[in-house]
């Protein structure tokens, strides 16, 4: 009856009910009214604002905020506009200014959390209020705290959540200017945190930038250029050089910069204005359509030809950088005798970084023939009669005069190195591979005048051969007018860097590692293997892997020896490199190193490769130290369960290699089968086969999860089958 008379619970009063002509027993009492009021959540929420206004302690106010959060969970967005307005006033009162002490900090974070909840429930007063505050209040705590490089991650995360929820839920308002301001602000701050290695801070900021970039940023041309060059040159380049986090870079690549964000400049439309991009949309941009971001960031499942709606920003950024590259490297005007300006460095760093991480940009670079342009620039430099031969030029003008040439070469070679470190940048055209090989061998004399240029060039050749069969072929061949191939020069680098005397207190060079990797890559082609076989490269192991090292032998650092063993392991897979040699050195190295260590496994694999060539069999089966080594390997205990021996191994890799070698040596031909039968080694093989077959026949396999267990069991079966035939 009270509801029918007063319509809504908030209007029910004792006075309104006392005037009704009904029995006294039907009229509500004070206790009834209290119960009604207490069950009215909206009214109770209003009382919490009064309580909040009357709080004199931070702790009490935080408790009140927690209670308000509970009410919002129940009411969600069904609160009245008056309550919503009061709620925003309470939040704004405490988040407008940055906290000044520890107590303020906790209260501030509580209010941020409350703000996130309000915006998540699409409360219009909170969304409009925060958007207006960010637009008009340049001293708002969000602006100030985002500039604080010491901001704690939890506070930054809450601020980011507020902004991202706001951008996700509010309608796009083209009148707002804070979108572009905060975008540029965050692009600068992200770099600052990256330099401090605060990568989680960077990720938070990139997430906001991704959301805000969907709005009309109203960026001027200088702002857009500054962002393109500065952000890409630093973030991309530094990220990849320090073991970048793929998902973080994917965030940066996923910006969707609307065409409206590229303001036209009627005086310079042909270069990089909005109308230029729109008029060339069919030719330059629309070929590359954006992918589903969730799929792309999850393992790069999509290809650049997969068609969905929005334009990928990496394509737009690449075309702007490509235009800037053309401006700085105008045809026939590049002068390597002048030092490269900041623009040269920034454009090339940005292009290299972008092409490293974006297959979309690589595809676009193929369309604009960027690689051909770089090759042409380097060719013009090498044909410049004012410079000529490197040795003659440096002798004529002095080493200091060559700094500008070295600087210009470094800028371009470094860009190519970053670019071709990506597996999507493989070179498949024979003509282009030939041109690059010729350019690099002509540049080679300049490398003796700069350690850094030599380092970057060797890395570039490593990346080129890593992903391109054509490059492996071309650098293995002699180019006209040259006495040595690039591959031969790589072998010389590896030899020189390995045997040179190290300078005390100076960081040792590891240039031989990428050089050896080039040699490994070139084993894939006949031309490379033939060239390597003529160099007698395995003689190096007399120096770095002597059978009985003495005090006079030079000490070789582990990374150097492992790099050389890695080359030998690949080279020995082929007949030109599989000859049995340095056997005692390999056996002794295996004995000296712990089981499953990298050095030991490489030596075992080299011996395995030798066993595959029939010409090595007579020598290997008669070598007692080798057969004893295989027996000792098979006697090693492998851990079956967590409670097994502490010294037991966790993998059957060495057992697998040993059995494979024994099968290839003794499993074919009556003579060799007879040599193995009746020996302790054969009995050991039988026992191992029985153990593996019993284990694999059990319901609960004791070797579940032990590496190479299944492979070992199959090899033992093949060996025994061969012995029965």
Question: Can you describe this structure?
Answer:
This is GM21364. InterPro entries: ARM-type_fold, Rotatin. By secondary structure, the chain is mainly alpha-helical. Among the domains are: 2-37, no CATH class; 52-218; 633-725, no CATH class. It has helices spanning 2-6, 14-18, 30-39, 41-54, 58-75, 81-95, 102-120, 124-136, 141-146, 153-169, 178-195, 199-212, 221-241, 246-253, 269-272, 274-279, 281-285, 293-297, 313-328, 342-357, 359-368, 370-382, 390-397, 403-419, 430-443, 451-467, 469-476, 486-499, 512-521, 526-533, 541-544, 558-571, 583-592, 598-611, 617-621, 624-634, 653-666, 670-676, 680-697, 709-724. α11 runs parallel beside α13 (221-241), α22 packs parallel to α25 (430-443) and α28 (486-499) runs antiparallel to α29 (512-521). The radius of gyration is 36 Å and the shape is flat. It starts with a helix and ends with a helix. Mean pLDDT is 81; it is low at 1-5, 239-249 and 256-310.
């Amino acid at each position: 009856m009270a509801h029918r008379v007063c319509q809504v619970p908030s209007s029910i009063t004792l006075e309104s009910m006392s005037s009704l002509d009904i029995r006294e027993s039907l009229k509500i009492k004070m206790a009834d009214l209290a119960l009604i009021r207490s069950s009215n959540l909206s009214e109770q929420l209003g009382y919490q604002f009064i309580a909040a206004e009357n709080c004199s302690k931070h702790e009490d106010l935080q408790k009140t905020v927690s209670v308000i959060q509970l009410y919002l969970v129940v009411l969600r967005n069904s609160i009245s506009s008056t309550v919503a307005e009061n709620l925003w006033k309470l939040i704004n009162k405490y988040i407008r200014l940055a906290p000044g002490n520890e107590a303020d900090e906790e209260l501030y974070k509580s209010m941020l959390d409350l703000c996130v909840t309000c915006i998540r429930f699409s409360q219009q007063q909170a969304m409009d209020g925060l958007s207006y505050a960010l637009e008009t209040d340049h001293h708002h705590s969000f602006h100030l705290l985002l500039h604080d490089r010491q901001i704690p991650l939890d506070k930054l995360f809450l601020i980011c959540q507020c902004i991202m929820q706001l951008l996700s839920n509010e309608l796009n308002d083209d009148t707002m200017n804070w979108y572009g301001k905060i975008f540029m602000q965050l692009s600068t701050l992200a770099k600052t945190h990256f330099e401090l290695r605060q990568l989680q801070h960077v990720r938070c900021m990139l997430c906001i930038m991704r959301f805000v970039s969907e709005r009309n940023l109203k960026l001027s041309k200088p702002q857009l250029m500054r962002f393109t060059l500065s952000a890409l040159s630093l973030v991309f380049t530094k990220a990849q050089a320090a073991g970048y986090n793929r998902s973080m870079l994917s965030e940066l690549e996923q910006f969707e910069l609307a065409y409206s964000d590229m303001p036209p400049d009627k005086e310079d439309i042909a270069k990089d204005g909005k109308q230029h991009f729109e008029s060339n949309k069919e030719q330059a941009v629309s070929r590359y359509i954006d992918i589903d971001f969730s799929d792309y960031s999850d393992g790069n499942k999509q290809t650049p030809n997969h068609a969905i709606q929005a334009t990928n920003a990496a394509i737009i950024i690449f075309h702007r950088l490509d235009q800037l590259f053309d401006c700085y490297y105008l045809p026939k005007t590049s002068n390597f005798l002048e030092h490269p300006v900041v623009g040269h460095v920034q454009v090339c760093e940005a292009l290299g970084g972008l092409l490293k991480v974006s297959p979309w940009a690589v595809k676009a670079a193929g369309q604009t023939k960027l690689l051909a342009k770089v090759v042409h620039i380097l060719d013009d430099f090498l044909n410049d009669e004012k410079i000529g031969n490197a040795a003659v030029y440096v002798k004529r003008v002095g080493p200091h005069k060559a700094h500008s040439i070295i600087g210009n070469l470094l800028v371009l070679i470094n860009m190519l190195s970053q670019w071709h470190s990506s597996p999507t940048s493989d070179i498949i055209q024979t003509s282009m591979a030939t041109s690059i090989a010729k350019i690099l061998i002509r540049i080679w004399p300049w490398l003796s005048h700069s350690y850094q240029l030599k380092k970057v060039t060797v890395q570039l050749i490593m990346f080129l051969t890593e992903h391109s069969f054509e490059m492996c072929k071309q650098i293995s061949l002699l180019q006209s007018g040259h006495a040595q191939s690039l591959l031969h020069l790589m072998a010389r680098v590896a030899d020189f860097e390995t045997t040179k005397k190290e300078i005390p207190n100076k960081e040792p060079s590891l240039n031989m590692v990428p050089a050896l990797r080039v040699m490994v890559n070139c084993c894939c082609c006949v031309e490379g293997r033939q060239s390597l076989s003529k160099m007698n490269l395995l003689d190096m192991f007399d120096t770095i892997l002597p059978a009985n090292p003495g005090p006079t032998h030079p000490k070789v650092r582990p990374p150097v020896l492992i790099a050389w063993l890695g080359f030998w392991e690949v080279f020995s897979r082929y007949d030109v490199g599989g000859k049995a040699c340095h056997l005692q050195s390999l056996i002794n190295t295996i004995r000296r190193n712990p089981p499953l260590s990298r050095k030991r496994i490489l030596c075992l694999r080299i011996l395995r490769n030798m066993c595959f060539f029939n010409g090595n069999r007579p020598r290997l089966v008669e070598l007692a130290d080798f057969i004893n080594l295989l027996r000792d390997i098979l006697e090693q205990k492998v851990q079956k369960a967590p409670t097994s021996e502490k010294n037991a191994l966790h993998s059957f890799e060495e057992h697998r290699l040993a059995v494979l070698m024994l099968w290839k040596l003794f499993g074919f031909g009556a003579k060799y089968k007879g040599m193995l039968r009746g020996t302790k080694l054969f009995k050991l093989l039988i026992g191992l086969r029985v153990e593996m077959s019993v284990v694999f026949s059990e319901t609960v396999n004791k070797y579940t999860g032990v590496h190479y267990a299944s492979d070992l069991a199959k090899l033992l079966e093949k060996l025994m089958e061969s012995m029965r035939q």
